[in-house]
Design goal:
Elements lengths: L4 H21 L4 H26 L3 H31 L13
Helix pairs in contact: 1-2, 2-3
């Protein structure tokens, strides 16, 4: 069964909106911001794959593979950053990290 192109675009836009809402609503929590960014990147990846399938070229799938590599690197660096900041300030609240000193 072929899924219509606009159904995938609607799903991707809903996912992107949910990720954006997550970033905006939980600006004070670093972990929730990272989850929102991950959801937005996954919606872009879905759009690339659907466009690739629609037009019969592999460029969208290649970009999706690059996005997978980018998100895995982002997750590992972000997790290391969150662990470091939590050990330093005992919190993941972004308001605690407003100054450059101690």
């Amino acid at each position: 069964m072929i899924i219509p192109f606009y159904h995938v675009l609607i799903l991707a836009s809903l996912l992107f909106g949910m990720g954006l809402a997550c970033v905006v609503a939980w600006r004070t929590n670093v972990i929730m911001m990272l989850i929102g960014i991950e959801i937005m990147l996954n919606s872009v990846m879905l759009t690339f794959v659907e466009g690739s399938a629609r037009w019969g070229i592999a460029d969208g799938q290649l970009f999706a593979l690059m996005l997978i590599a980018l998100t895995s690197a982002e997750v590992s660096l972000a997790l290391a950053m969150v662990v470091y900041l939590h050990r330093r300030k005992q919190s993941v609240n972004t308001d605690d990290y407003g100054s450059m000193n101690g």
